[in-house]
C-alpha cells in the first residue's frame, strides 16, 4: 500500500473491516478528536484524555441527603474498566416560581468534577453537588429572609432556608447528574 496522499475510502459503507480478529494492526495514529464508529456498540471517541464509549455515560438522579449531610450521588458503572479513569459531570439549571407577585428563581447545581478514580479495583464513583439560587430578573444571588447565603451543599437545607420551598418545587432535571467516563488507551 505504501504512503498515500489521498483519502482511503471503502467501496461500500458499513461493509469492510480494518484487520480481523486474528490479524490486527499494531498501532493506529489518529489526530486529536478523531472518531471511530461501531454500529453494534454505538460511538467510540478518541481524545488525548482517553477513550469514551456510550456504555460509560449516563444519568443519575439525586436523592437529597438528610439534614446536615452533603448531597452525593453514588454511581456504579455497567462493567469494570480495568484501569484508572476520569468522570466528567454536569447538571442542568432549573427554575422555581413562587410568591405573589410571582418571582422566578434560577437554581443551579454545581457538580464537582472532573472526578479522578485512581483505583484499579473501583467500578463506580461518587459525585458531590452544591446549589446556588439567583433571581431570574437580574441574576443577583438570592439571600433568604433568615440571612443564609449560598451555595448550599444540602438541597433540603436550601429549601428550608427559602421559606416556602419544598423538594417538589425543584425540577427533577435539576436533580439529575449527567456523567461520562474516560480512560487512557492501553
Features:
4-stranded antiparallel β-sheet; elongated; 11 strands; mainly beta; 186 residues
Q: Could you please describe the fold and organization of this structure?
A:
This protein is 4% helix and 35% strand. It has one helix at 155-161; strands at 35-38, 42-47, 50-53, 57-61, 72-76, 85-90, 94-98, 103-111, 115-117, 124-135, 176-182. Strands 4-11-6-9 form a 4-stranded antiparallel sheet, with no helix packed on it. Strands 5-10-8-7 form a 4-stranded antiparallel sheet, with no helix packed on it. The chain has a 3-stranded antiparallel sheet with strand order 1-2-3, with no helix packed on it. Strand 2 and strand 3 form a beta hairpin. The longest helix is centred in the last third of the chain and has 7 residues, at 155-161.
The gist of it:
This protein has 1 helix and 11 strands; from the N terminus they run ββββββββββαβ.
SS class: mainly beta
C-alpha geometry: elongated
Beta strand %: 35-45%
Biggest sheet character:
4 strands, antiparallel
**Number of helical stretches of at least 4 residues:** 1
Mean pLDDT: 83
Topology as a string of helices (H) and strands (E) = EEEEEEEEEEHE
Q: Cα-atom Rg, whole angstroms?
A: 23 Å
Major beta sheet, strand line-up: 4-11-6-9
Strand tally is 11
